[in-house]
Structure prediction request, 624 residues.
Amino acid sequence: MNETILTPILDLLDVIGIAIFALSGAVIAARERQTFVTMGFFALVTGVGGGTIRDLLIGAPVFWITDPWVAAICLACALIAWFTPVTLWQGKLFDLADGGGLAAYAVLGSAKAIAYGVPPVPAILMGIITGCVGGIIRDVVAGRPSIIMQPELYVTAAALSAAITVSGMTLTQWLALPLPDAWIWGAAFLSGFILRAVAIQWRLGLPS
Amino acid sequence: MNETILTPILDLLDVIGIAIFALSGAVIAARERQTFVTMGFFALVTGVGGGTIRDLLIGAPVFWITDPWVAAICLACALIAWFTPVTLWQGKLFDLADGGGLAAYAVLGSAKAIAYGVPPVPAILMGIITGCVGGIIRDVVAGRPSIIMQPELYVTAAALSAAITVSGMTLTQWLALPLPDAWIWGAAFLSGFILRAVAIQWRLGLPS
Amino acid sequence: MNETILTPILDLLDVIGIAIFALSGAVIAARERQTFVTMGFFALVTGVGGGTIRDLLIGAPVFWITDPWVAAICLACALIAWFTPVTLWQGKLFDLADGGGLAAYAVLGSAKAIAYGVPPVPAILMGIITGCVGGIIRDVVAGRPSIIMQPELYVTAAALSAAITVSGMTLTQWLALPLPDAWIWGAAFLSGFILRAVAIQWRLGLPS
Prediction:
């Protein structure tokens, strides 16, 4: 297991993803008129849940335990949700931001898995898990029907970003292409995000 | 923590268990007319869920992250469930196959825990967890009443296989008996499987 | 990650917390007229669930896997619940005992996290998780509304104990005060326990 320094781009994607997901978790608690403690719990679970499972699975130190700020960011998002009207965090704009977090997390999760020497298929799954699992835990604990049970193009968007990240990085390494990783990550992020945006706009779903 | 090479018998039990459980997960998603993405998710969670928890608990590298094929087998099972009629995977025959996977996983989980130096009582629990937890996570995420809440002889069958494996291997080592591990595993597998088969045939349950 | 010897006080808090939580888990299964196997499962999940998540997150060996007795204590609690009338384990007295387990676990979880070099904010969260997560998993698997979704002062009591533990130990170290850890733990335990007891007596809740 070769420890690796992930670049600043990934770090930025990470913070954005955490904050958006933490907000979405806190808002769900706020909608059900929960207390601040519950909102903090949901902000944390939704913000770091997916990355936590990923780190445990690939054998990395859990990112928000070693980092002194991540948990504080999640609790700050809960504070923001507590002091602002819930309606501010609903509607299409927030769904789009959530789609951005989803794609960012999928790219980050896959790239980190590859950096830890995980083979391609599990590495793609690590990206999907990083993007989707926080929301699934949130829904299961809140007793809501989880996104995984709906035909929406949500998990699929994460899968697209993760698959492009992994196949791009693997091919670049095999063929020794002079393609910087940042380009692959950008393309992977945009593909997943656009697919999710299109799905939100025209309410696209998968066949069942 | 002494890494050990588990024998080919355990490897075969492992693949059979994964495939049967993955199928059962995918079929539950198919029954509720879910998309392929959801079926893949359930195939994976059900197929590798129990073994994942076991590996995290005993401090082993998670088996399907280091192995490039296990995750692909689960997704292949989801594909099979997608392209075949659901009715093919229902009824007593499939329940029996599921019982076989349960007993196989219970033996495998206990044997692996012992190989990692886990004491007897936790080692038995590792066998039970390996056999049952994938299905429990599947049911919780799908919002179904979980097998653990029903009087059926299901967890009990896993407990029987795990207890025979652990007591057999521990006694053999203490008394320095010339009994090969494969015999113990075979006896443990058959005991759990037969108990489960009898329970399916005559709808036996535990007293409450 | 510097392994540390936690003192006998923490060990005692630990066993008390495990036994109380294991009983509460087994009793919930008993109320729903479940079998002994299900009661054992709930005793185990509730008794060791929070500490398991904590150990996985901070990278410690999972405590009940290396210790041969903890799992046996949980199963013994399930036996006790099986052979005694359920009504014995209901009412205010048992709620108080549960509050004691909650505060004890919160102190223990935070202290262990600090011993493993976890920064303050995550260390407080480790205390909360150790105290509350076993009960949350129990409720989610049983399909009951979880304590985290109710305005009761429950998670808040754990948060108080954890915050006092972490701030006390951190300040003592920074300012090189001659204050023994046992005093901090005692004060932290009492604060959380009294807050919980007051909340039970006068049915206090947080504003939503």
Residues 103 and 190 of chain C are 8 Å apart (CA to CA).
